[in-house]
């Protein structure tokens, strides 16, 4: 499979080379501080004894797996610490496809664009199901698309790019489809700390051998570069997930795991509350300005992206470049996420300049 530069890299590069000042709303890199204990943990680790600079256990530091297990109410033996949710998703999808129970992967449209790439790399075939008006996958629509060839159903909640959040009934319905079609539901819960609706229900709330939950600390602790995530895998699927992880990575970096563990232990709920509040304020200010631009937009229930639709300005790569050059705002074209929202643009609200960006859009389209 040929290497393809992700479209967001391409756009960030284009924005960097643009002549004027451009506000970057392309990448999902948080711009706020990680927990203080996270930075302390990274610093402390540099002075550790030499034996603590050697391989970690391949499934992750036991203390970290126990901490994750306690927080998510699962047996630590079901947890594999991974190189972010990105690797965890790959492991989950690979496990689903290697069971010999079909080669189709059901994905939401619009989709987080790494899932189709992983599907193709693993020899699977994508089958897209458009999201409902609430920006999530309706279990009934997934059931309609499911068939004897369905190996995997990938859901993301809270969802990038729509901001949709699956509630307990929807999650139960989705796990039931996976069970009925002998498939594996991979539930990517990377944005689990960014639920503004109060409705978020993890797939872990449904006990099943047919679901794998993935998550990470990339967004919740504002550390996408530290690379610590995890998968929670049922017993019958666990060994092959662990083997693939070990054969690919050997193990995950110790200092990142140590710092995340310290931060989990020493950070109170107010840290997460503050980042949610910051994002909610920004989203409100951004969408107010979109009103002034006469745009239609999503009011996300979770995660930190807003999608906007401007009249006669579909979400093409060409139009995203025009926005960079003519409005000084860089967003992602909706077409990068599939067909369902190809008329839209996605803006990541992870910049203190979100309101200024919205003002620029209001001026450009107003
Ligand atoms: C839905 C989704 N899953 C996974 C990831 C990757 O997360 P990680 O940094 O934990 O690999 C992202 C990053 O933007 C994402 O939006």
What order do the helices and strands come in, and which of them pair?
Blueprint: H1 7-17, E1 23-24, H2 36-45, H3 62-72, E2 79-82, H4 84-97, E3 104-109, H5 114-121, E4 125-130, H6 139-145, E5 150-156, H7 168-180, E6 184-188, E7 211-216, E8 229-232, H8 235-249, H9 254-266, H10 269-292, E9 296-297, E10 305-309, H11 317-327, E11 329-330, E12 332-333, E13 345-348, H12 354-365
Parallel strand pairs: 1-11, 3-4, 3-5, 5-6, 6-7
Antiparallel strand pairs: 2-8, 7-8, 9-10, 10-13, 12-13
Helix pairs in contact: 2-9, 4-5, 4-8, 6-7, 10-12
Pyridoxal-5'-phosphate (PLP) binds next to helix 4.
Describe this structure in words.
By secondary structure, the chain is α/β, with parallel strands linked by helices. The protein has two domains: 124 residues, Aspartate Aminotransferase, domain 1, CATH 3.90.1150.10; 229 residues, 3-Layer(aba) Sandwich (Aspartate Aminotransferase, domain 2). Helices cover 41% and strands 15% of the residues. The protein has twelve helices and 13 strands. Strand 3, helix 5 and strand 4 form a beta-alpha-beta unit. Helix 4 packs across helix 5, helix 6 packs parallel to helix 7 and helix 10 packs parallel to helix 12. The protein is globular. The structure holds pyridoxal-5'-phosphate. The site of pyridoxal-5'-phosphate has 13 residues, from helix 4. Pyridoxal-5'-phosphate binds next to helix 4.
Question: TL;DR?
Answer:
This protein is α/β, with parallel strands linked by helices. It folds into 2 domains: 7-34 and 270-365, Aspartate Aminotransferase, domain 1 (Alpha-Beta Complex); 38-266, Aspartate Aminotransferase, domain 2 (3-Layer(aba) Sandwich).
């Amino acid at each position: 499979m040929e290497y393809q530069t992700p479209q967001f890299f391409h756009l960030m590069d284009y924005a960097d080379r643009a002549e004027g000042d451009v506000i970057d709303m392309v990448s999902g890199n948080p711009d706020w501080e990680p927990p203080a204990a996270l930075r302390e943990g990274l610093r402390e680790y540099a002075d550790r004894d030499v034996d603590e600079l050697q391989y970690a256990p391949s499934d992750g530091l036991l203390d970290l797996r126990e901490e994750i297990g306690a927080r998510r109410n699962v047996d630590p033996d079901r947890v594999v610490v991974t190189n972010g949710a990105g690797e965890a998703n790959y492991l989950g999808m690979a496990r689903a496809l290697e069971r010999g129970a079909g080669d189709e992967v059901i994905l939401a449209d619009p989709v987080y664009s790494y899932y189709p790439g992983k599907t193709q790399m693993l020899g699977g075939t994508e089958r897209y199901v458009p999201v409902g008006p609430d920006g999530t996958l309706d279990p009934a629509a997934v059931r309609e698309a499911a068939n004897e060839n369905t190996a995997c159903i990938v859901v993301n909640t809270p969802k990038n790019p729509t901001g949709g959040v699956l509630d307990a009934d929807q999650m139960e319905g989705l796990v039931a489809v996976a069970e009925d079609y002998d498939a594996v539901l991979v539930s990517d819960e990377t944005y689990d700390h960014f639920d503004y609706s109060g409705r978020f229900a993890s797939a872990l709330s449904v006990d099943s051998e047919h679901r794998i939950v993935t998550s990470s600390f990339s967004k919740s602790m504002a550390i996408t570069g530290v690379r610590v995530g995890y998968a929670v895998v049922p017993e019958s699927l666990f060994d092959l997930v662990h083997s693939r992880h070990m054969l690919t990575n050997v193990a995950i970096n110790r200092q990142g795991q140590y710092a995340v563990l310290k931060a989990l232990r020493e950070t109170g709920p107010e840290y997460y509350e503050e980042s949610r509040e910051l994002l909610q304020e920004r989203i409100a200010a951004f969408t107010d300005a979109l009103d002034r631009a006469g745009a239609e937009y999503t009011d996300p229930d979770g995660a930190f992206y807003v999608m906007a639709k401007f009249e006669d300005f579909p979400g093409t790569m060409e139009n995203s470049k025009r926005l960079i050059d003519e409005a000084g705002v860089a967003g992602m074209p909706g077409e990068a996420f599939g067909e369902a929202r190809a008329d839209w643009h996605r803006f990541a609200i992870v910049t203190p300049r979100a309101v200024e960006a919205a003002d620029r859009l209001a001026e450009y389209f107003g």
